[in-house]
What does this fold into?
Amino acid sequence: AATKLASAEKLMYFCTDQLGLEQDFEQKQMPDGKLPVDGFLLCVDVSRGMNRNFDEQLKFVSNLYNQLAKTKKPVVVVLTKCDEGVERYIRDAHAFALGKKNLQVVETSARSNVNVELAFGTLVQLVDKSRGKAKIIPYFEALKQQSQQIAAAKDKYEWLVSRIVKSHHELWPNVSRKMQPAPEFQDYVYLEGTLKAKKLFLQHVQRLKQEHIERRRKAYLALLPQALDALVPDLDEIDRLSRSKAEKLLEAKPDFSKWFVVLEETPWDAGDRVDEVDSERIPFDLLETPAAEQLYEAHLEKLRNERKRAEMRRAFRENLESSPFVTPGKPWEEARSFIMNEDFYQWLEEPVYMDIYGKHQKQLIDKAKEDFQELLLEYSELFYELELDAKPSKEKMGVIQEVLGEEQRFKALHKLQAERDALVLKHIHFVYHPTKETCPSCSSCVDARVEQLLSTRFLRPHRNPLGDTNVDRINLVILGKDGLARELANEIRALCTNDDKYVVEGKMYELALRPIEGNVRLPVNAFQTPTFQPHGCLCLYNSKESLSYVVESIEKSREAAAGRRDGHGGQLPLTLVLVNKRGGGGGVGGVEGGETLQSLIQQGQQIASKLQCKQIGQVLKGLLDAKRNLNLVVGSTSPGLKEAGEAELRGVICLMCGDPVSADEVLLPILQAQPCRPAPGGGGGGA
It folds into this structure.
């Protein structure tokens, strides 16, 4: 209760942590060793003490207070250890204070750091009246506020740690130095201390390490099904093996080291393996974990299910083959109820069955068509009396169907009537035009197969007087009505060498001609066949009607080409040729009477502009007339070949520029895609 203390050369601010370690703390002595006392904190322990009677304790506190009151100095009663306080003790302490005049009580807990500053602040206010009066808060309310403050500071500190610490390899000394200037770090350390700040840091580092391990674990587990598929894809190999024998089997596989690695330190997540970020091989001891065991069982189950599904697919195909209800052309919806059972639905999805059924239907239909084709060949006498244009009347088609109607091979296609009728028409075309192109066997035609085999397995020797081995094949379509195409093709063939060679500008070409005079929509008159891919087309006309035929045929051919998947023949290089009247006898027919040459030239120019062959930019229109001059061009290489190539064809003119043209200029746009020379005055367009 003394108000003046003298303690020369004594250190200030002693606490239990300083005892024996004074040199580790700040050295600060009392000034002059004298210390006046301005007020007192009367501390009362309200916890349950061992062998201690609180009533006796309170009597001692009462006697002590009486001594302090005599000093006339401010006194504040401080209840300590309220975090373990007994409610009756606290109540009795407050009752004691109420019996005294202006004696204030502050409930504190040094361990929880609750109201400690408030106790000193209350005493300071009593000493210095100029200071504002502090509001005394009960312990539990202050504890709540303190907890909220600590929680907020903790959240901010944890945010700071997560922002700075990104790796589980970080160390506390380095990180604490980085965080030292941050207010989030300072506030939390002030409230909770450095030890708790370090503890939260270590928890964050451990969490980062666990997250890293979990990422590695997920990566390994994601790779495990692929490894099992690669090493043990056969169910018979592992179906009845125990786990230990299955692991030994895996180790014995040649590619084991490609997928797995056997570690000296196990488990894998306790060693340095965790930090090998680039590691792609699975630690073998991972197979002992429950997650890996589940994946292994899932692998077994997948193999068993695949086997069962394969058995179901096989059983379904056998059911299709043996079922009398599955006929060519029958839709899946009609056949499903007859061939499906509960097991099929249990193991496979309906789209799988539909795919199998579709493939089976294709086999049935192909076989039925083949049998029907044989039937048509057996009844060849039905087609003897048809007209040569191969267009049977409805009555004749009725007779054919009536005669064949009782045949099972005819009935097999009753759900495919349109295709059956198409087969009949195709057979009729074949009867009157028996070629590779109209053969019902299509690409399987023996003639076509022989040509393909010969072209791929045997080299055809070429006689080339020029010694040039670079010989290209040019397939040309000659389109013309009323015999124009056949006549020109015959003349060209007659004038070529034995090997059908044509030389232009020192390069040798092998010519293959296909004259067409009828409906190009019929297979026999098609521009393109399985064995003939055209490179260009010579279009001949000598009248308005023959010009109309050329236009219609070109348009039909382009429509047919647009519908084909291969897209060939959509835009062929074209040469539009006007055939004029011959000065002498024989040869290609000329312009028919009643129509002037100038009129046909103008019509040809208009049609050329309409056709617009984009692949060559412009299309040459010429007139072929003189057999003698043509012979000099396409004949064998004689001493006069150069002069003949430069000679002009008698009666052959360009429809665009009006100038005479040479024989080479007729075929050159097809062979080299060269445009005609421009007309005087810059005229263009057409071809």
In short: The CA atoms of residues 44 and 57 lie 8 Å apart. The chain has 24 helices and 15 strands. Confidence is low (pLDDT under 50) at residues 462-469, 582-588, 613-656, 673-687.
